[in-house]
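Hi there. Long-time user, first ticket. I'm pasting a complex I've been working with (about 810 residues overall). I'd like to know whether the download I got is complete or cut off, because the file seemed smaller than I expected. Thanks.
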Amino acid sequence: MTDYRTWERRTPRQRLLRYLAGLLTIVAAAVSWRLLRINYDYIGTAPTEFMDLINRMYPPNVGYTGQIVSPMIETIHIAILGTTLAVLLSIPVALLGAENTTPNRLSFLLGKFIISASRSVNVIIWALVFVIIFGSGALAGTLAIAVRSIGFCSKLIAESIEEIDPGQVEAVKATGANSIEAAIYGILPQVKPTLIGVSTYRWDINVRASTIIGFVGAGGIGVELNTSINFFAWQQVLTILLAILVIVVFSEVVSAYLRRKAR
Amino acid sequence: MATKQTDRRSWTRPTAFYNHYVKWAVYVIIAVFLLWSAWNMRISMARVMDGWDAAVGLVNGMFPPEYTTEFKNELLIEGLIESLAMSVIATIVGVIISIPVAFMAAENIAPKPVYWVGRGIITVSRSFHELIIAIIAVKAVGIGALAGVIALSYKTVGFFAKLLAEEIEDIDSGQMEATEATGANRTQTMLFGVLPQVMPRIVGLTIYRWDINIRHSTIVGIVGAGGIGATLLNSFDQYDYDFFLLIIIAIIAIVMVGELISTYIRGRIQ
Amino acid sequence: MLSVTDLQKTYPSGDEALKGVSLEVTGSETVAMIGPSGAGKSTFIRCVNRLTEPSGGSVELDGLELTGLSGKKLRNARRDIGMIFQEYNLIERLTVMENVLSGRLGYVSTWNAFRRNFDGDDIERAYEVLERVGLDGHENNRADELSGGQRQRVGIARAILQRPKILLVDEPTSSLDPESSRAVMDLLTEIAAEDDIPVLINIHEVDLAEEYADRIVGLRLGEKVFEGTPADLDETARGQIYRGEEIPEGAGPTGKVAAEAGDVGGVSSDEGEIRRS
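Hi, the file is complete. Here it is re-exported in full:
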């Protein structure tokens, strides 16, 4: 009898857990796949369809560029105004939602509620809601973006407020300053880097979001894109996509620069 | 001496800008731009008043959320299940595609031309919102869940490959060199020197992305790419606001459950 | 004149940090408060300007009762009390000048505070004070660019700019090396003497206390167990403050200990014995 030396990397229990997790994933995948009832013919033809689409898109319609300048500008307006509004509104919400600055238990819960309500609804759904209220147009889009962003911004700002050094606030209070002055001198300088980081980061997200809220009529380049797609004007679609790409990359460069600047 | 005295009676804080004129110029430009943006919105008093009436109507129409009709309940549950299934498949497909892209986009192991291709794929994938991809996929492969799966997988690549590439760039190169030194070829080096180091991160990111994909799978239906979104848009178009609210509540519930599960599992892994 | 009577503080956790301490600081004297950590020194100082809310007793500054004040009245009272902190508590991301001028926040409107729009006299004085603490030319540096000793000097300048009626100093040297500690103490006592401001300082280095104080107060477990001149602080008194030893009958000069805190010493001693057993 040969007594083989064995080598095992994990304990039996760990291995069992790993196998179970793997099995669960496979079962979930299989069940999901069956549920989707995807037509296999479609998958087979998908690559050809996409190639066909790309062929029809190329070359982009250069003459169309003039027509998309103003919707592109509107898109940027929506992103900027939405982000600005969101950051301004999220400062009081963050003060409510931070344990060390909230006046009482109730206001804390209110802050947390606003944060999670705003975060759990997608921007396109907010856009639908505001289109019902204000009719189609950029105003609905701006509000949708602002409302969706408040939760995100307030959450991060509140976390940063909770991490400040309370000694600095105390020192300002000890000179006889009122609580607003204590916030301006004691809290604001400490959360300023977060404030700038969060707004530029959210601005990046909002530029992308403002390109699609037009699908439900909330203004911006999305309206134009939707029309072009519905009319199968694929060369115009590519022009718009390229314009979006330029704007998105440009805004990312700008916000990365701002983040580096703010220490 | 007298001038020095007057000097010392004022103090202005040093500015992050080139000088104070530049600072004020920048502020003025920003203010003008914001005003221009606001003016472009064409906000009028009449509009706000109408908006108020519409909002009251909407809230009245919404409450109480509808939960009685069996037919609608079936629609809702079917839509939610389809959304969930899409999120699972899209995450798996997306991650499988992402891993090679991430290796391509890691500066420390990919040759320069490959690196730029990898980065390019990531940038293009990140630039477009999932709804744009979804609407194009719908035109290419028809209305239904397949288009949604394509859109979500595509977006997964940009997110997953970017973060994983950053992780690979941070690995301990000693382990990789040690594997190379045993005479392993390039693939073996990746398998034994790099992959084990980033494996926990891959699992964590996969679950995180699944969480995000659940959120997105609930809305791509708005452009016809499967899931609950189509039902949502229908109820909206038919002014069926109480059903609209029910769907939103259901979406919020499922998103929150997904987030809880994802947070729990990621906590366990670390 | 600061006069504190029977000051008590019980924290919500049930910790009795102060069990009725009385103290007077008059004229322009420097009073040092010593004692082991946890004796209640910081709590005492913080109860004076109500950064910590006392649970009982009275604090009077120039005849004004400070406990029970709130809102505007409390803020006005705080303007007259300068405080210097152990961890400096400067606003790290603001300039030295903004930190020094923040000593005048109680006197400017919120809007002017936001605009950094301070009175010309205050700015002129800020420059002077910065010169006095040896930081001229540093007004546009950010506070986090300075060394520990320099930061504490900014803290002193901020307190001085308040034109306080008293300076409360909480462990000014415990974050500093010995050399900077002496420099800071020199500066502090010098400025207090020049401007005729009384100082209540709380310090755990006994040698610094003996060197710089006119009067020393010893706290132990929330009670005053010693009060006297630096010369009175002999080995017996130290033993009593730091180790809770009972005073041997008629052994050596014990300052005011025997007179004022006779039975109190006995209680401390009991607790000390419990701890030893």
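A couple of notes from our side: Residues 76-269 of chain B form a domain with the MetI-like fold fold (CATH 1.10.3720.10). The interface with chain C takes residues 5, 8-14 of chain B (CB under 8 Å).
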